[in-house]
Please model this.
Amino acid sequence: MSEKSRVLGAAGGALGLGSLAAALGLCCTVPWAVALLGVSGAVAFARLAFLLPYALIGSFALLAAGFWWAYRRPIACAEGACIPADRRPLRWVVWIAAVLVGALSVVALTSPLPL
Amino acid sequence: MRSIHATATVIATMLAATGCADATDADSTGGYALLDEAASQLRADFNGAKGSVRVLFVVDPICPGCLRGLDDVNRDLLAQTDDPRLQTYVVHVPVLGAEAKDIAPAARLLENSRIHHYWNPSGEFGRQLTEAVDLKHGDEPVYAWDVWLIYGPEAAWDEALPPKPRRLMHQLRALTGSTVFPRLDSEAFAREVRQLLAQLPASPPEP
Model:
């Protein structure tokens, strides 16, 4: 698997898990679950709320892996024997993913109640 | 004449669909009573059942967590008994923007013939309950919704505010870690209700 695929996969996975965490965090304070899933679906979704911390941990773990792949020096170039490919686009990807995951985490962990 | 009859049928159907036609017949099919600011209907029903074990739930019918709570309590308690000495009151409040039409789908989660539903569109009942049970996080009052209360046979609603319950459980993040108010544990809730029922004299056979 190429470095590019790894970084993009890790960033995408982190965003996916972060979105899941945000949805789980919001599920009990935003009425969309019942409108979208119906009562039975909303009950089933609410039963998944325990997954929130695991989704967040998984998201940050994937981000960390993405950073590592984006910033590590390839083994073949470790002694300066080659010119490494430009990784700036991949690094931009993981940084953007990190910002988005951070925002999703805030959403997941803070659910202001209207009353 | 025929058109008058048809109009009356349409109006009756619309009222039934909104739950208003059944507003005084609070049962598990989604009928509900409209709760006034003094909660007088609930108060009358509550006091009328003195001598019974009474449980009170305050929920928003479109809150997934509340619906999960209803489903859990139904599974562990209400679906397993039709004891006439147990009365259940469910007050629906629009914390997340619920409407009266949302009560019926939520009510279908509960399988018991002694359930009374109430709709409190102003949400005032939650504020009254907050004051009555002193529901606080530190010094900050916490609005009483997604709360699950048990009243013994001796409880009477004599004051303006609802009486203090034997037990109040909740599913509120604001009360996480509270030593006074435990988080809803439907099995423990059901166990406590059964213990109270076991202390009551056997109910007379229903006609």
Summary: The mean pLDDT of chain A is 85.
